[in-house]
Specification:
By secondary structure, this protein is α/β, with parallel strands linked by helices. The chain contains 4 helices and 7 strands; from the N terminus they run βββαβαβββαα. It has a 7-stranded mixed sheet, sandwiched between helices. A hairpin with an 8-residue loop joins strand 6 and strand 7.
Length: 171
């Protein structure tokens, strides 16, 4: 089984660039693959329906990836304790892959999220999950490689997604 982390960036000029890093271990100590996908067009942001904008680039960067058993997304799996689906829930439903959502800010209705503090950071991360227990997901995020609040894999995928190169276009 392999482990992935994905992020999507929306440049001011339009479109979206999704990035994925893949590791053979859940701490992401050694990244074995990096991928990016560029979409020239994405739908506009709709409050409460962020997943509609984020899913197409996420699908594009996951296309052709095999043996992925866990995916970490930047955001929430579910948006409240009643299970209102967020991006991670939609990814889990579509792919069957276990998903951990790692959010950098508290969402007012996500009172169920596990609070994870890493390193010497005073600000926490907010963790949600589908396909695995919340406790296990929080422990995995806490154990991920890197001394900072945000694990190295998430920092890397964020940087990869922000390097916009039109030659990677996948309309």
């Amino acid at each position: 089984m392999r482990y992935g982390a994905v992020d999507v960036y929306y440049p001011p000029s339009g479109g979206a660039r999704a990035a994925l890093v893949v590791a053979d271990d859940p701490t992401f100590a050694t990244v074995v693959d990096e991928r990016v996908a560029w979409l020239a067009y994405v739908t506009a942001y709709e409050p409460g329906s962020f997943f509609r904008r984020e899913l197409p680039p996420t699908r594009a960067v996951l296309d052709g990836v095999r043996d992925l058993g866990l995916l970490i997304v930047d955001g929430y799996v579910d948006l409240d304790s009643d299970g209102r689906p967020g991006l991670g829930a939609h990814v889990h439903d579509e792919t069957g892959i276990a998903v951990i959502g790692v959010a950098k800010t508290a969402f007012r209705t996500a009172t169920h999220a596990a609070v994870v503090r890493r390193g010497v950071a005073t600000r926490p991360l907010y963790v949600t999950a589908a396909g695995l227990s919340l406790e296990h997901a929080a422990n995995l995020v806490a154990a991920m490689t890197g001394p900072h609040r945000l694990p190295d894999a998430l920092r890397r995928v964020d940087r990869l997604s922000r390097v916009v190169d039109q030659t990677t276009a996948a309309d």
